[in-house]
Model the fold of this input.
Amino acid sequence: MENNTATKTILSGIQPTNNLTLGNYIGAMKNFVNLQDKYPDYTKNYIIVDLHALTVPQVPSELRSRTYSMLALYLAIGLDPEKSNIFVQSHITGHTELTWILNTLTGMGQLNRMTQFKDKSAKEGTFINVGLYAYPVLMAADILLYNANLIPIGEDQKQHLELARDLAAKFNHTYSPTFNIPDPIIPKQGARIMDLQNPENKMSKSAISPKGTIILTEDLNITAKKIKSAVTDSGTDIVYDPNNPEKAGINNLLTIYSTLTDTEIPKIEEKYVNSGYGDFKKDLAEIVVETLRPIKEKHDEFLKNKDHLDQILKASAANVQKSAYKILSKVYKKVGLVAPLR
Ligand code: AMP
Ligand code: TRP
Done:
C-alpha cells in the first residue's frame, strides 16, 4: 500500500539479529498481523532494521541470510505484502539522514539513561561503539520518517519510543509543527515473555541459556522439550499470581498458553484445576509446536524463492521511498539547509 499522508500509519521494526524467538512472536509479530486486519485503511510499514543490527558485531554473510529469513517469517505469520509494506531499512534513503538531524536535537543525558544501552554495553566489554549509543535515535528516525502514528512494540522498547515522542515534540517546538507524536501499542498480555529457565529474565535472542529460549525456526522436538523442562516451582496449582516472584515460571507459561490460544487465564486455570504442572506443560508443548509448525513450514517454503522475496522488498521500498523523501526534504528545509541544486 502506498504511503499516504492523509491516512494513519502503523509502523514497527525488528532486527535481523540472531534468531527470532517466541517472545518476538508473541510480543510483537503476532500483533503486526492482528493490526493488518484491524486497520485495513491504514498504511502499515514493517521494517527489517538491518542498520540497527550493525550496532553489535555481525558475521556479514549471516546478517544477509537472516534478513531474508526474517522476511520469509513475516510472510509465514501472515503479513501480506498487498496490505503491508515489508522492507529493509538500509534500502530507503532517509533513515540515516534523518538520524543525523535528530542527533543534533538529542541530549547525551537522554541516551545515557537508556536501560538497553546500559545492558548491551555492559556485555560488549571495553569497546563500545557510537552506533550502539545512538541506536534509539535511529529508531526515532525510522518512526518519524513516515510520520507514523501507532507503534506496536514489546515492553522493552517503551523507553525508546518515549525518546521518539520527545524528539518529535522537540522538533515541532524548535521549528514548526511537522511530526505526529507516535503512540505505542503494547499488548496487555505477552509484552514480556520470560526465559523458560530463568523466568526472572526476558526471553531474548542473545540469552545465555539456549534451553530457556524458543527459536521460531528450530526443530520442533527441541521446542517441545524446552517447554516440558521449563522451570516452575515446588507448588502444584496452576494459578496465575503476578505478585509472587516465585511463581514467575508458571505465570509465564500461562501467559504463553493464553496468548497463543486466545483464552482468558481464569478459563485455563479452571481447565487444569485437577491437573499438575506435568500435564499442563505437555498440553502447552503441543500448543506451541502446533502454532510454530505451519509458520516454520511456510518460512522454509518462502525462503526457497529468493526472486520472489526480492520482488517484495523492491515493491515495498518503492511504495514508501517517495513519502520518506518528502518528509526528509521538509525537515531539511525547516532546519535551514539549502535545497540541493539540480
Ligand atoms: P528485537 O528482537 O530487540 O528486535 O525486538 C523486536 C520486537 O520484539 C520488539 O518490539 C520487542 O519489544 C519484542 N520483544 C523482544 N523480546 C520480547 C519478549 N521476550 N517478550 C515480548 N516481546 C519481546
Ligand atoms: N529497536 C527495536 C528493537 O530492537 C527495533 C526497531 C527499530 C523498532 N526501529 C523501530 C521498533 C521502529 C519500532 C519502531 O526491538
In short: The mean pLDDT is 94.
